[in-house]
Amino acid sequence: MTRNRFGTGPAPDFAALPILQPGVFPPGAEPAEGVAYLPASPETVLWGRLPGRRDAPVLTIASGDTVVIDTVSHEGILPDQGQDPAAFFAQHGVAAEAVLDDAIAIASRAPRDAVADGPHVITGPIRVEGARPGDVLRIGIERLEPRVPYGVISNRHGRGALPAVLPRDGQTVSVFAPVEERAGALCGTLPRTEGGTRDVAFPLAPFLGTIGVAPDSDERPHSVPPSDFGGNIDIRLLVEGTSLYLPVQVDGALAYVGDPHFAQGDGEVALTALEASLRATLTFEVVPADVARREFGALAGPLVRTPDYLVPTGLDPDLGEAMRKAVRAALDLIRARWGMDEHLAYAYLSAAADFDISQVVDVVCGVHARIREADFPALAVAGGAGA
C-alpha cells in the first residue's frame, strides 16, 4: 500500500470511479473473507451525537480484525440545506443515481435535534473484544475510498475563524466542489468568481475527521468538540497508511467514525473541510496497557502515528492552552519512549518539531506536534504496537 494514493503517483481514471452506494462494491473490490462490512443506515449511525457507554454496539469484532465501514457526509443533508440531498445536489447538476441512498435515508429517518445536536453522521459503535480501560486502541487506516466524485465546503451561521465577519450575511454559504483528475491526481475544483470556470484545483488527501471511542459516561457527547477520547479531532495527517491510538475508556472501547473529508487545510478556517462521503477500511487492535505504557508513556489523549512521525495532541477551548497541552504531551512522549531528559527534550522540540493547528472551529481547538522517529534511536519493544 502507498502512504497516500491521492496526489502522488498515477491516479485512477476519474471516469472509472464508481458511485459507492451502500452494499455495492466494484468487481474485485468486495471485502476479503473474514473482513466485516458495516453500512451507514438509520440503524447503524448517530446523527449529531457520539456514542456513550450505554450504547449497544452495531458490530462486535476481535482485536486485529479489519472492517469496511461506510461513512456519510453531513453536507447536503442538514436542515439549512433543505434536508433533502437529492434536491440539494440536483441544484449542482448531480444526477439522482449519483446521490447516496444512505444519505437520503439518514436525512429522512435518522433522529436529530436540530438545536441541541451537532451536524456529523457517526457510524458505530463497534465493540472490540478484550479492550479494557487502561488499554489503548490502535485504529489503522488501511484504505479510504471516495464514494462520490464531489463534495461541499461550508461557512455557516457566522462561525469559523472569522465569526461575525464571514459569511457576510450570517447565513450558510455552501460551496459545491466537483472532483476531477488533473495532472495525474484527483483534485477538488473551485472557480475564482461565482459561476466562473473552475480553474483552481487542489489535491485530495482523504481522511476521517471523527474517530473515537466512547467516554465513560451515560451521556452521548455532542459531535462537534473533540476530547481525550478522540471524536472530531480533524487531524489531516490521518490518511491511508497511518494509525490513531486512543486510550480506552469503557469495556469494548465502542469505537466509531464519521465526518469524512476529501481534503482539509490545517486550521479548517471556514468551518468545514471539503466534506464528502468515504468508504473506510480500518483495522482495530487492542494494545495492552503495559505495552502501550512502554511505547508511549501514559497516553492521556489521541496520538497519531504516520510512517515518519509520532503526533501527540493538545485540545482546549483556548488555542494557547491547546498549544501548551500539545507541548506537554510531546515532552511526556519523548521522555517515556526515549528516556530523554526534560530540558533536552524541550530543546529538541524547539529546534526540530513542528506544532500545527489541527482546527480552530470546533469549540475545542486542536494542536498537534510532529516528532520524527528517525531523529531518535530505534526501539526494540517486545509486543510493540506498530503503525
UniProtKB/TrEMBL annotation:
GO molecular function, one term: hydrolase activity, acting on carbon-nitrogen (but not peptide) bonds, in linear amides
Chain segments annotated as transmembrane: none
Pfam family, one: FmdA_AmdA
Protein name: Acetamidase
